Amino acid sequence: MLDEKVKERIEFELEPFKKMGFPGYFLIVWDVIRAAREMDVSVVPDRGSAAGSVVAYCLRITDIDLIRYDLLFERFSESRQGFNARY
Q1: Choosing a second label site near 67 at 20 to 30 A (CA), which of 11, 21, 51, 61?
Q2: What dihedral do alpha carbons 47, 53, 55, 57 form, nearest 10°?
Q3: Using CA atoms, how far apart are residues 50 and 54, in angstroms rounded to an integer?
Q4: What average pLDDT does the segment 5-22 reach?
């Protein structure tokens, strides 16, 4: 079960993702990374925009736990007014 802080963060991130059409992209990246790991191919998904996302962490696209280390999600800040003010 997810705690309330994680749920809020996921909902907060999903809003701009949906507006910008990224859900399909994230699922494709998740599928590629999952397949690579199953074939013992080394992957380094901790670079770029996805590394700064709790959604990517939940999908195991990245191994960076932003909640644990209290890191900001700010890649898509231009899509919302005051986006950085909250996270």
Answers
A1: 21
A2: 50
A3: 9
A4: 84
